[in-house]
Amino acid sequence: MSTSKIALVTGGSRGLGKDMALKLAQQGIDVILTYRSQQAEAAAVVADIEALGCRAVALPLNAADISTFAAFFGQVSDALTTTFGTDRFDFLINNAGTSLNTPIAEMTEALFDDMLNVHFKGVYFLTQQALPLLRDGGRIINVSSATTRSSFVGVSAYASMKGAVEVFTRYLALELGSRGIAANVVAPGAVFGGGTMTDTPEMRAWVAQATALGRTAEPDDIGGVVAFLCSDAARWLNGQRLELTGGMML
Fold first, then answer.
1. Ramachandran region of residue 98, left (φ > 0), alpha (ψ -120 to 50) or beta?
2. Exposed end of the chain (fewer CB within 10 Å): N or C?
3. Annotated catalytic residue, options 35, 124, 158, 171
């Protein structure tokens, strides 16, 4: 049986998820990462992880389609056996998602449901179905957003779903404590190079001036905190929200 720790990172082919996967591998943690459509990008991340001396597998997943989750975890179980020589993984990082900028007056039910499915309903039931494969003493890290603290025009649906995930995380911490599983939230601010942020010189300039540390964030600023939350040093951190903004809009 394998003695290495294993993390499952959703949305790990690019942006924040890619950096999380690489930072975990730098800590000696093997990785199962998921991708929606970018198979070549996901394969490149697997190669980068293997170059760091760890094992990795990339699996397709539509994190908004709950009907596919049972089959997905069948694939996860197979990968655990064939690639990692075990039947459990240690860390679940719910990172997959999209962005949406639509004012409340223009919101449609279809757009709202898209946000609900990928950012809350999907996270809820993916986590639920992961529990039988998640090792006792493991960790769950859910990715939220600084928009749950500071409000911006156009992101009401996205921020509402992320707020729901933050509440859900506290309940995970409460209900899974008997298994020794800790659950926490990381809440990045505006991260450029992550694949979803509107990336213009004007937007970068506005974010930089609104941030105490005086610059914009890159994916590299986020992944290390996720790796820390999966370390023994973070074992007593539970049910908490860590905002990663460099001090934006303090």
1. beta
2. N
3. 158
